Amino acid sequence: MMTNEEAKQEAIRKAFCDKWDLSTDEYKNHLLTKKHWVDMSIKYGALSGLNYYKSPTPQILTYNNEIEINCEFWRPISLKGIEDNNGWTRIEPDDSNIPTEPDTYMGYSPTVGEVRCCKTSLKSLFKNGTITPFRIYTEHHKPIY
User: Fold this and answer.
1) The whole model's pTM is what?
2) Are 31 and 22 in contact (CB under 8 A)?
3) Helix (H) and strand (E) counts for the chain?
4) Same-domain check for residues 102 and 61
5) Within this chain, do residues 16 and 40 fall inside the same structural domain, yes or no?
6) I need a labelling partner for 10 at 20 to 30 A (CA). Which of 23, 30, 32, 72 fits?
């Protein structure tokens, strides 16, 4: 089982698809360590002195509308929310980050979806492979109007 950092890096690799294999090691390292944003203001050349894929423009890389833009930076839309895993905490392989506080949690299973559980159930659901990420459960109230 991958650690959180390994899983995050794998998500970045998948988001860049075949462009990942065409990139230099320096460029890959930049994407993995610099918040996975590509600088559009730099054309055909170097990024902080590093040579990388022919052009950072999403159009040339055929991402077109499947990107998120922030000023002069872009990234594949699939990476939106990667900074905090969209509010989910991925459980480490050694379960060292399973919470100790008694609370109600939401676990996430790729086959079932969200699973509401207590701290003890969270640990056993992780151990049997049912869930990997969790978040604290917060009850949402019905809208007033």
Assistant:
1) 0.72
2) no
3) 4, 9
4) no
5) yes
6) 72
| Per-residue pLDDT tens digits of the chain, which is 145 residues long | 788 889 998 998 888 777 777 677 777 787 887 767 777 665 434 444 444 444 445 554 555 557 787 887 778 888 889 988 999 999 999 989 988 888 899 999 988 899 999 988 998 999 988 888 999 988 877 767 7
Task: Match 């559980």 to its residue by tokens.
Answer: 117
Q: Provide the domain limits for residue 101.
A: 86-136
Q: Which residues contact 35 (CB under 8 A, 6 or more apart)?
A: 83
137 burial via Cβ count (<10 Å: 0-12, 13-18, 19+): middle
Task: Determine the Cα–Cα distance for residues 96 and 14; give it in Å rounded to an integer.
Answer: 27
